[in-house]
User: What shape does this take?
Amino acid sequence: MPDFPFHVVGGRFELTRKPLNPFDAPLASESSGGDRPLSGSRRRKLWEVAHKCHCPIVGTCFEVGELRALMRKVLHLPHDTTDFVLHTTAVGACENRSQLAELLQKQLEKRFQATIRRFASAKRSDALLALWQEACRDGTDIPGALWATWSHPACDKLLEQTVYGDIHMIQHQVGTGTRADLKTLNALRSERSSLREEIARLRDENEALRSERAQENLVLTQRTTELRADVVGRDAKIAELTSQLSRLRDSLPDLSDRQTLIRRASDAEARCAALSAHAAAREKETERLRALLQHAETMIEQYARTCQESTNDAEPDSAPPMTQLGGKSVLCVGGRSGAIDAYRQLVERMGGRFLHHDGGLEESLHRIDGALAAADLVICQAGCISHNAYWRVKEQCKRTGKTCLFLRGAGVTSFGRVVSQACTVDHEITTNMNLVDNNSQ
Assistant: This one.
């Protein structure tokens, strides 16, 4: 734009034509005094600061957008005004007191009130330099520190030049950092593009999965609806059957009693069958015992007849074993209770006296000692007595020297055969003793 002046550090290039901005002309009451020293403690105005400082102040303390908005209040700017033209115009307006300079001055004083109050505590240039250096090291409030330092009454030419050099290098460093940031920004933009592509791909996959899940959910929903319909139908059928059952029960008021009687009849039939089976088993056992008893009686009779015939055929001096008990006492320990009478008849038929003890099953073992003392012959049925009775009989017979015969079975035939053997042994012993006596005479 040729109608605007272009300012540089230390001066400006004037155009041959008169500028269109009427506010660039200095006010009548003010004169250009940017380089003259101030006296007293009054702070410098923006147009009183050296003109070379206006460029750093405008560029550092104001953003481009903010500067454009402030300048539109006092100037008519075309829409295509560049940032550089905007900056140089503002710098040129600050050289003298103008409406734009006063507006910028007011904005600086309002924005950096806290920093200005803090820097006001410095009374000398060295203290002011220390505050400026501290702000540079901190790096958080450089715009405020820049304005507070250059507008301070204690800012001399040397401090002004020092601050100018510092802010100049800071701007270079900021430019270097900006270039690095731009490079990083380009890399981030490239990465953002790749990430967007990845996000787009993931979104497509997500949409595919969502569609698949939606289809599955639709199928499951249909299946659930069918199952619910089945359940409803089943519940309706159950309700109908329950109603029919209730009507049947109402039509048969004594149904529960009949069911109870049927259960009782079934139980009675089961008990009757069990009792019938038990009775049949008892009947078979009874028949078996009867047959056994009949066989035993037959054997006893045969054995008795045999013994009687042997007695009749024998000589008078050699009596058969059946008559050789001679009144001896025969003790039977144990045996079956149903065969005791047969034992007794057999012993009495052979001329002996029968004694019996059940071996501790029902009778007391203390009574067995008296029976053993009264007996001449002891027959112990070991399978039908207790262990205590067995050992007691064995020890007693061994101590007294009485003959004790042991039987495994409890049959009448076995008992008769053992008694006959015992009688035969006693007869042989007696005959041998008589022969010995005759030979000695």
User: Anything to note?
Assistant: The chain has two domains: 6-188, 300-440.
